[in-house]
Amino acid sequence: MSEAGGGRGFGSSVPQRAPWSLVAAAAALCLVSATSVWTAGASPMSREEKQKLGNQVLEMFDHAYGNYMEHAYPADELMPLTCRGRVRGQEPSRGDVDDALGKFSLTLIDSLDTLVVLNKTKEFEDAVRKVLRDVNLDNDVVVSVFETNIRVLGGLLGGHSLAIMLKEKGEYMQWYNDELLQMAKQLGYKLLPAFNTTSGLPYPRINLKFGIRKPEARTGTETDTCTACAGTLILEFAALSRFTGATIFEEYARKALDFLWEKRQRSSNLVGVTINIHTGDWVRKDSGVGAGIDSYYEYLLKAYVLLGDDSFLERFNTHYDAIMRYISQPPLLLDVHIHKPMLNARTWMDALLAFFPGLQVLKGDIRPAIETHEMLYQVIKKHNFLPEAFTTDFRVHWAQHPLRPEFAESTYFLYKATGDPYYLEVGKTLIENLNKYARVPCGFAAMKDVRTGSHEDRMDSFFLAEMFKYLYLLFADKEDVIFDIEDYIFTTEAHLLPLWLSTTNQRLSKKNTTSEYTELDDSNFDWTCPNTQILFPNDPLYAQSIREPLKNVVDKSCPRGIIRVREESFRSGAKPPLRARDFMATNPEHLEILKKMGVSLIHLKDGRVQLVQHAIQAASSIDAEDGLRFMQEMIELSSQQQKEQQLPPRAVQIVSHPFFGRVVLTAGPAQFGLDLSKHKETRGFVASSKPYNGCSELTNPESVMGKIALIQRGQCMFAEKARNIQNAGAIGGIVIDDNEGSSSDTAPLFQMAGDGKDTDDITIPMLFLFSKEGSIILDAIREYEEVEVLLSDKAKDREPEMENEEQPSSENDSQNQSAEQIASSSQEVDLVDQESPEESSLNSHPESLSPADTDNAASISPSEQNSNPTENHETTSLDGECTDLDNQLQEQSETEEDSNPNVSWGKKVQPIDSILADWNEDIEAFEMMEKDEL
Ligand code: DMJ
Q1: Residue 388 beta carbon below 6 angstroms from any ligand 1 atom
Q2: How remote is the CA of residue 698 from the centroid of ligand 1, in Å?
Q3: With a 6 A CB cut-off, is 462 part of the ligand 1 pocket?
Q4: Whole-angstrom Cα distance, residue 79 to residue 76?
Q5: Whose CA is nearest to atom 11 of ligand 1?
Q6: Average model confidence (pLDDT) across the chain
Q7: Of 299, 214, 209, 210, which is closest to residue 254 (Cα–Cα)?
């Protein structure tokens, strides 16, 4: 393989763009040209305020980066609660999420080009020297190919791109001689063995030292990968090829993309979430724009922008057409089945899809981008952050939030496209929330639960790679950035690749691609990057007019089950099918409908009622399909109800100096004692009980009197501990796990059960902390002696008067906590664990399903039979308000169908066998989705 001469044959002068490359640049440029179009609308933000916010972003970045460098480097990531580095193998495994960690100083590499964007050139120079001096890419660690590509290869290439730009300017980086690029090439070669499959799709993981095949590799047995994992390589691999002249990288990435394209579901033009890398069969046949698929679509469009290859645009447009037809239900984006795209596969959305409005801006399809972004913003206003997943009626589905940048990304692109100062206000809210809820003395901590405000001991590298870039650029004027951002494209990790690569080392131009398209179909340009002068010709309030009808979409929504309804019924004026949430077993009309749908009601001996469907007994195939949907909803509702019977997590917030409420620990609730959700929180200083296990009368009542007692788990019942500390005068208790190293990051939520007897005598609140979270309090006592905490159901706002007391040195004091200071305790364990509400799922109720292939069954308990299950949901609303959104969705759906002769309800009427086969697939898909980690 020939390689273009090392020392940046592309080094000191930036090549001129070829004519088509100007098209690519124009595609990127169309994002920014609208800023000058705006003359009216929401009040503009003054230059001073924008600068103030920009400076705030810089200060926040310093806080995150500075703490990483001081307390974590050379580890991959900072653990901001315990203020130390996360070193793989030294912390309890968190599963797949740890596959991003390769002992290669991930956060430093991911931050390189952010330093330049934020005008920290000197720090960039230092950081590059550190990478070259310290980073080893040859560790015996199994890493994710996808994460290593987007974060490390992308980070090195972004760093290289800006290093050569700076060198050319003549002031900084004069010593630089393509060293980052050489590292990138070394890493590229390390990833190549992953592509050794007949399909050309890469294995999901690789051992950096031993590759795939060697016995020491400890990987290579996987059969499946996610679509995004296989389809998010082209930008970095093509850039590597073009920078170095080694064409193999681009070739491999193209081959993987070609294979995915071939495997798209031909009638819907959608792709599934996971695919078998050997056979090419879809493993998960659900399809959306979020987790598992997201950046595959992003890279098709951006590959066109960067590489100018029309076939990528063709593919993107074909998929986009399918997304807008099936998945987009503005303002929602809902997953569907690839082979049955008119049926939703889920009733919830994940946070990763928040990047999609940004991609729609790049595409030039602004309206749905504005709509979805507005819906997401309202969810954020409700919970301060976007929960990892939320339902179609905007309830929290997965409560964590690892400081993801996707929403900030879309906000930036929408501002660039519309110039509407509204998006600056959105950015301001994001900054405020980060400082208010996620900032801790040693960095920024992910949210463990957006409902309680509790933290997780993690600060992912993408927070520095992406969040600060997008927030800074949102408020920056051209002169605030030392280079022209429009000369670059953002990778999915927001790394910057120069557009001039399009004309460099083009050995794999479009004529070599395997795409079946050779000619461009002009109609596909319908949605592509229109001139923004035409987009908002005479209407500077365009974006606002789109947002206006949606302004209460979240607050006024109702709990819903499956949204898509049978359009045909509405057109003919017939009643909509019976929804599971409306079903009442005492309503004769409902029983009649059940019968029509082939669903029978069986009263079990234990008093429960079981619903069984024999599709064959339904009055028609449409009734059979309604029955299937009804059963599916019933299973979801019953699973939801079981979840709701679990107690939610609680929060322990350290409010004394130097924490001032900024550290919030996830705590397990007790099934006895004061219910913190109903009563005011309890606040007090903490004191360790003697004996520490709290299993007998306390010998130090004077120390715990009026305080919150700390007790170790084990050796007696939780209720007994509670009684002993209560008798000693404690106003509350925190039980700390004695399993060394246990953490709420890795263990499901723990609920403390009573002792099987009457526990009404226990009136103080009791909470449970895993060992790691407990250690944070124990360390604080050692360091500061007087430690005050707040026990509550949800973290409370930091107190301004306490913040004001803070001395400049106090932050450093707490940062000085070292790993050695983290105490842990260990003794025997016993008693009752309960699964977290987040952990329980449809899967956990296999008994609800009949084993017979042709039958579908769900059980409901006697108490559920006559009640409307939705009454238990936390979201309430007025009838009129509910129907508004439903109608919107209905209308949208009808319009879609009416205007599209290819899509008709008739198409959805399937033979019974096929419906039953699909049903089984649905169940499998739901099971897998519930298990899936984002
Ligand atoms: C980032 O690592 C990338 O943006 C990726 O494509 C998916 N999302 C994470 C951050 O949320």
Answers
A1: no
A2: 51
A3: yes
A4: 10
A5: 404
A6: 80
A7: 299
Nearest-atom number in ligand 1 for the CA of 351 is 11
Cβ-proximal residues to 115 (8 Å cutoff; 6+ apart), any chain = 65, 121, 123, 124, 127
Instruction: Confirm or reject: Cβ of 493 under 6 Å from ligand 1.
Output: yes
**What DSSP state is assigned to residue 904?**
-
**Contact predicate 11/166, CB 8 Å:** no
**How would you write 819-882 as a 3-class SS string?**
HHHCCCCCCCCCCCCCCCCCCCCHHHCHHHCCCCCCEEEEEECHHHHCCCHHHHCCCCCCHHHH
Instruction: Please answer whether residues 713 and 735 qualify as being in contact, where contact means their C-beta atoms are separated by less than 8 angstroms.
Output: yes
Is the pLDDT at 516 greater than 70? The verdict is no
pLDDT band at 638 (very low <50, low <70, confident <90, very high): confident
CA 110 to ligand 1 center in whole angstroms: 12
Task: For a ligand 1 pocket test, name from 144, 149, 404 the mutation site with the most ligand atoms within 8 angstroms of its C-beta.
Answer: 404
Does residue 841 have a pLDDT over 70?
Answer: no
What average pLDDT does this structure show over 643-664? 85
Torsion of CA 397, 399, 403, 409, to 10 degrees: 20
> Among candidates 728, 720, 718, 737, which has minimal Cα distance to 690?
728
Residues with active-site annotation:
147, 294, 388, 406
Distance 150 CA to ligand 1 centre (A): 8
Looking from the CA of 638 toward its CB, the CA atoms found within 13 Å total 28
Atom of ligand 1 nearest to the CA of 295: 6
CA-100 nearest atom, ligand 1: 2
Number of H helices, E strands in the chain: 32, 31
Interhelix angle 248-263/294-307, rounded to 10 degrees, is 130
Helix ranges (H only) for 578-620 are 588-596
**Which is it for strands 708-712 and 682-688: parallel, antiparallel or unpaired?**
parallel
Q: Which of 341, 351, 348 is nearest to 321 (CA)?
A: 341
**CA-closest candidate to residue 120, choices 498, 500, 491, 472:** 472
| Spacing, Cα 461 to ligand 1 middle (Å) | 10
Nearest to 543 by CA among 426, 798, 370: 370
CA-to-CA separations, 481 to 117, 411, 499, 699, 933, in angstroms, rounded: 6, 19, 17, 64, 37
CB of 111 shorter than 6 A to ligand 1: no
Distance 579 CA to ligand 1 centre (A): 37
| Ligand 1 atom 3 nearest Cα | 493
Ligand 1: does its nearest atom lie under 6 Å from the Cβ of 743?
no
492 within ligand 1 shell (Cβ under 6 A): yes
Q: What is the CA radius of gyration of the chain?
A: 28
Distance from first CA to last CA of the chain, Å, rounded? Answer: 38
The pLDDT value recorded for residue 481 is 98
Ligand 1: distance of its center to the CA of 61 in Å?
18
Residue 847 pLDDT class (50, 70, 90 cuts): very low
Q: Is 404's C-beta closer than 6 angstroms to any atom of ligand 1?
A: yes
Give the residue among 99, 71, 97, 98 at the shortest CA–CA distance from 85. 71
pTM across the whole model: 0.70
For residue 417, how many C-alpha atoms fall within 13 Å in the half-sphere facing its CB? Answer: 28
Interacting residues of 742 by C-beta distance below 8 A, sequence separation 6+: 92, 770, 771, 772
Q: Which residues pair with 440 in a beta bridge?
A: 443
What is the rounded distance in angstroms from the CA atom of residue 300 to the CA atom of residue 319?
Answer: 10
Distance between CA atoms of 379 and 395, rounded to whole angstroms?
9
**Share in percent of the chain as helix, strand, coil (round to 5):** 45, 15, 40
- Give the CA distances from residue 205 to residues 199, 217, 873, in Å, rounded to whole numbers and listed in that order: 16, 10, 41
Residue 712 belongs to what H/E stretch? strand 708-712
